[in-house]
UniProtKB/TrEMBL annotation:
This is cytochrome-b5 reductase. The keyword 4Fe-4S does not apply. GO terms for molecular function: cytochrome-b5 reductase activity, acting on NADH. Residues 12-105 form the Flavoprotein pyridine nucleotide cytochrome reductase-like FAD-binding domain. Residues 129-233 form the Oxidoreductase FAD/NAD(P)-binding domain. It comes from Paramecium octaurelia.
Amino acid sequence: MSSIDYDKTFDATLVKKDQITHDTYLFGFQSEVDIQLEPAEHFQILMKDSDGIDINRNYTPILSQQRYFEVPIKIYPLGSLTPILAKLSINSKLQMQRKIGKLAYMGANKFIIAPKINKQFQVFKTMLMICGGTGITPAFSIIKHVCQKKDPLHMHLLYANKTSQDILLKDQLTKFQNECPNLKVTHILDKEPGYKGLQGYVTLDVLKQVFPSPNNDTIGTFCGPTAMNKVVAELYKNYNIQTVVKF
Ligand SMILES: Cc1cc2nc3c(=O)[nH]c(=O)nc-3n(C[C@H](O)[C@H](O)[C@H](O)COP(=O)(O)OP(=O)(O)OC[C@H]3O[C@@H](n4cnc5c(N)ncnc54)[C@H](O)[C@@H]3O)c2cc1C
């Protein structure tokens, strides 16, 4: 069975809602069509607020199996959509769309940058990932795919959070790192005095400390809160990486 086209609307039922950190739930959805998302692909939840205004938000599953997918979603108490999601009961139905992202990982070290307008793939040997908070989800889905398929892609993840309580998917990342010799995970925390690992914000010195020197075979990627994304885009420039993509 082929999977649903991009931008086509489909219905999905909430079948799982597990709290995984103080502010994040792992949501599991059963869809009425085969959505079969590729690594780093995302979908959009389409809702209306109490005034009938559209609130559409994007989410990147960390597990996608034909008609079932799971995604960690952080709840913002003052946000528009996530407080509604937090209150949803099991068996609630939602409207969604499969979306095309800014980067597609095709397997075997092949990437398509801007797949909406570009069909040519590029091959990279090394992938750098700088993620903040829930921005881990697209990187996680690529890491999982590469480790499971044993693709020869060297992956370096720098994962920034406020405290160790905020780190998502920590056990799974540790497991992948133990099983996958091509993966190096470094955590950095900015609000945990006494933390034995890296502390503070991501800086050029941090990049030099945790990443290999870049060359033409390196792709730099990032995904995090807006303020962090601005800083990281500038840092990658100063780190002289030719190819940089924000998920
Ligand atoms: C491609 C993509 C993939 C994503 N994947 C995931 C994922 O897997 N998991 C995940 O949890 N998120 C993901 N996101 C983020 C997600 O799409 C939403 O942005 C997030 O869930 C917040 O939605 P919200 O409507 O609850 O909050 P919003 O209403 O968008 O608000 C977000 C925050 O901004 C604050 N805010 C809103 N308006 C203002 C204002 N005017 N001034 C100051 N502060 C304001 C809110 O209080 C809240 O803290 C992804 C985003 C993209 C683009």
